[in-house]
From TrEMBL:
GO MF: nucleotidyltransferase activity
Organism: Pseudoalteromonas aurantia
Free-text domain note: Has four distinct domains: an N-terminal nucleotidyltransferase (NT) domain responsible for UTase activity, a central HD domain that encodes UR activity, and two C-terminal ACT domains that seem to have a role in glutamine sensing.
Protein name: Bifunctional uridylyltransferase/uridylyl-removing enzyme
Gene name tied to this protein: glnD
Tree of life domain: Bacteria
Length: 872
């Protein structure tokens, strides 16, 4: 559809900048209104036509038309005639020689007018020689020139330039192909190698628009093709694949167009903030998460198809463009398969009529580490067979046998599983996997869809068998080496989130699915129960480690009673570590590693003692004191002085801290002369996975909130906090803090935090300024504050759970409410997941007793009032 006549009339009659702005505003409203009425291709072509007419008008109005040697050339996407609502406008002004002063003035006026119209432009002024010089150095610039077209000006110079672009030997087909492949690999790595990011980049993600464009660029350079359809004549595309590629391209264009309208600017990342509006524009409804899920599942299916076709076609191109590298001797693997270079290929396409051979192909990949990919004609055959499947692969006995062999193969869950996931064979085998394919997660801390998260989890488990991983995850590597049936761990990983998106408790539903799968596949009852138990309890260890005091013997006893035996503990630990690491690349850190490892070791010890005979707390304290005292004596401290310090501390201090922390605290207390004066130490080396902050001070009800404020003002994340009083009414604070990146503090940062704490300890009445700067990043998730007051394991205390948006100063606000309610804070567990704070406090009243019911209600009311006021 051409531009509406009114737009043409407004543009032609415009006399001033204001007239041009009015015309542009009218055009953009028309563009938005027409989106639901006509194909998106018409609209992106219409915007390119509008910009053409605008540039020609300004080219004439600014006097540039007076220079016959000048050519105005569209490049890149604009050169293809494809402009989304707010896409950048890239153009080249080609000149014969360096512009004189008069032309320079006209050029500057031309560009300034475009800026005044709020257009995002990418422009350059180059001579013919300068273009060729840049082309030689920059493959990206060469690619933009491949798609150039003349808007107005000297067509002779433009045609001369085009001939150099296509024919010049500066970038030969093979060099250009290699450069574009390398460029694509770098681009994919920046997207973590997956299309299934929860906030995907429509252009850059694997399977995005750039993958389609890369196919076209290579075809245009090597075959001089002007359209993708020409690849049918060259034998690289079937007619059906061409239609599929066009359909995928149209869908990607639609989503990108809607994203631009939702964002109101040039934006390629489909961020959470824009997803609901984009889904509504695209007609998926206005139901919030449900609409977004429908849109995103469509997008991820499209990206999966594009990525597969991109791989297939580029492999075909490689055989034509790099024949010396592609001509490899075929090595037979069996009657049906052979290896050609680093790719596996079928000898006869009809082999897949025996469905189990689809899985046997991946067994060969597991058998031969030198096979890294699948030959393109085999991908094509596999795609055709996959689409013609009736039922699920697991319905075939031969497929079940092959899947079990793969599951038990030492390398089966490595590259073989990754390629099965990439090419849709897991979804073809397991019907539940199809339900989680492209399934969104709206919990702020997941970075990937459910299926991709599960794939990454399985890959993490597989890496435990890699010798290189032993230095980073020695305990997991040791456990999996002695594990009798690692295939059960992989099965639990496959099913741990398989029921997400169905409603209900996904752990319970997944456990039922896992049990049914094991029975169909002939697992023993005990093995099936183990897999089902792991799926149902896969969150148990992370919740216990991050929300409870793992130095409390009662917590360990409770956890161990659920785990029951060391075998289940081994499986659960390996699954938990792999699960957290697969959730988000930024979520895992040494602190979490230390928490889980200590929970594992404490629980292992409890299980070995026997659940009916748990270790007595007095024995635990005696062992810790003995080890800590020996460390201090080795540092030449007097035993009598050590006992004098320890006599001030209550028994709960020695249960709460490790012997390493006890000796570290005591070392610094022994160095000060006056124990009635405050002492603050910030560790300059990581301990227990984080930077330790130790404060010993006379009791001050307001001090806790002040310390929290100082630490927060230094942009440090509090991972854990412990607070306890001494026998002489002093107070001990211990914080574990990390940088925002998840790393422990550097030495200089530790010193800075210590100085800030020392200032407030010297003058507790000193006022501290805090900035209220709530991030708008996840405003659409509508996280409402929640406060729950629970009984504690000790009858004289209460446990308070608080969930809220993690605004700056949140902990300080909570501490202020505690202070106003005259509460003692005995311990705190601080957890931040995405922008959700999940904090736990152990408290008592002024008499060190649990709260009465009316006090609980008042505290809950005060906290909710404060949190609602701060997060509005």
């Amino acid at each position: 559809m051409a531009l509406p006549n009114k737009v043409k009339t407004l543009l032609d009659s415009a006399q001033h900048l204001g007239d041009l702005k009015d015309c542009a505003n009218y055009f953009y409203k028309w563009l938005s209104n027409e989106f639901s009425k006509q194909p998106v291709r018409n609209l992106i072509n219409s915007r390119a036509e509008f910009i053409d007419r605008l540039l020609i008008k300004l080219f004439n109005d600014t006097g540039l038309a007076r220079y016959p040697e000048l050519a105005l050339i569209a490049v890149g996407g604009y050169g293809r005639g494809e402009l989304h609502p707010y896409s950048d406008i890239d153009f080249l002004l080609l000149v014969n020689d360096t512009p004189n002063a008069e032309m320079t003035t006209a050029l500057e006026e031309f560009v300034t007018l475009l800026w005044d119209l709020n257009l995002e432009i990418g422009h350059s002024v180059r001579t013919h020689d300068q273009v060729l010089e840049q082309k030689q150095e920059d493959v990206h610039f060469t690619t933009c020139l491949l798609e150039s077209r003349l808007i107005c000006g000297n067509h002779v110079e433009f045609e001369r330039l085009r001939s150099h672009i296509v024919e010049t030997p500066i970038w030969k087909s093979d060099d250009f192909f290699i450069a574009k492949i390398n460029e694509q690999q770098v681009r994919h790595r920046k997207c973590h190698g997956t299309a299934y990011n929860l906030e995907p980049n429509i252009k850059e993600n694997p399977g995005g628009l750039r993958d389609v464009q890369t196919i076209f660029w290579v075809a245009k350079k090597h075959f001089h093709a002007e359209t993708l359809e020409e690849l049918i004549n060259h034998g690289y595309l079937t007619h059906e694949e061409y239609q599929e590629l066009l359909e995928c391209l149209e869908n990607l264009w639609n989503i990108r167009f809607a994203l631009h309208l939702a964002a109101g600017r040039c934006e390629n990342r489909l961020l959470f903030d824009y997803q609901p509006h984009a889904a509504e524009i695209l007609g998926f409804g206005s139901e919030g998460k449900a609409s977004v899920e429908r849109m995103m599942k469509r997008l991820f299916r499209i990206m999966s198809r594009v990525r597969e076709m991109n791989q297939m076609l580029l492999s075909y191109f490689e055989q034509s463009i790099l024949p010396d590298q592609s001509e490899q001797i075929a090595v037979s693997l069996d009657d049906n398969f052979e290896r050609i270079g680093n790719k596996i290929s079928v000898k006869n396409p009809s082999v897949f009529f025996r469905r189990e051979q689809l899985l046997v192909l991946f067994e060969h990949i597991a058998d031969h580490p030198e096979i890294t990919n699948i030959e393109p004609s085999t991908i094509r055959t596999m795609r055709q067979v996959r689409r013609r499947l009736l039922g699920d692969l697991q319905d075939y006995a031969g497929c079940r046998d092959a899947f079990l062999r793969l599951l038990k193969h030492p390398n089966g869950m490595g590259r073989a599983f990754t390629l099965m996931h990439k090419h849709g064979l897991i979804a073809a085998y397991l019907p539940q996997w199809r339900n989680i394919f492209g399934q969104m997660q709206f919990d702020l801390f997941h970075a990937y869809t459910v299926d991709e998260h599960t794939h990454k989890l399985i890959n993490n488990i597989y890496l435990y068998t890699d010798k290189e991983q032993k230095k980073d995850f020695p305990l997991c590597s040791e456990i999996i080496t002695r594990m009798d049936k690692p295939e059960l761990l992989y099965l639990a990983a496959i099913f741990h989130d398989i029921a997400k998106g169905r409603g209900g408790d996904h752990s319970e539903l997944g456990a039922v699915d896992a049990l049914a799968f094991c029975k169909v596949h002939g697992f023993t009852n005990s093995d099936a129960r183990l897999v089902s138990w792991l799926v149902e309890n896969h969150l148990l260890m992370s919740v216990t480690a991050q929300r409870k005091d793992i130095n409390d013997p009662d917590v360990i006893a409770e956890f161990a009673s659920v785990v029951k035996n060391e075998r289940q503990l081994d499986y659960l630990y390996c699954l938990t570590v792999a699960d957290i690491r697969a959730t988000n690349d930024n979520l895992w850190n040494d602190w979490k590693n230390t928490l889980l490892r200590e929970l594992y070791l404490h629980s292992q010890h409890a299980l070995r003692l026997g659940l009916e005979n748990p270790m007595d707390m007095r024995d635990q304290i005696r062992d810790k004191k003995k080890q800590a005292k020996q460390r201090l004596i080795n540092l030449e401290f007097n035993e009598e002085n050590i006992d004098a310090i320890w006599s001030r501390l209550k028994a709960n201090y020695f249960t709460a801290f490790s012997e390493q922390q006890i000796s570290w605290h005591s070392e610094h207390l022994l160095k000060i002369n006056d124990l009635n004066a405050p002492c603050v130490v910030v560790g300059e080396q990581a301990m227990h996975g984080g930077t330790q902050v130790f404060v010993y001070s006379p009791y001050n009800a307001n001090l806790f909130s002040k310390l929290l404020t100082i630490i927060g003002s230094k942009k440090a994340q509090i991972q854990h906090a412990q607070v306890m009083t001494t026998k002489d009414n002093s107070v001990v604070y211990n914080f574990v803090i990390l940088e925002v990146s998840g790393n422990p503090m550097s030495s200089s940062r530790a010193k800075s935090i210590r100085r800030g704490l020392e200032v407030i300890l010297k003058d507790p009445k000193k006022k501290i300024r805090t900035k209220k700067n709530r991030s708008q990043r996840f405003k659409d998730f509508n996280i409402k504050p929640k406060v729950i007051v629970r009984p504690h394991a000790r009858a004289d205390r209460n446990l308070i759970e608080i969930q809220a948006i993690d605004i700056p100063g949140l902990l300080t606000k909570i501490a202020e409410v505690f202070q106003a309610n005259s509460l003692h804070i005995h311990a705190a567990r601080i957890t931040t997941v995405g922008e959700r704070a999940e904090d736990f406090f152990v408290i008592s009243n002024t008499d060190y007793q649990a709260l009465a019911e009316e006090h609980k209600a008042a505290l809950q009311r005060d906290l909710m009032k404060k949190l609602n006021a701060e997060t509005e």
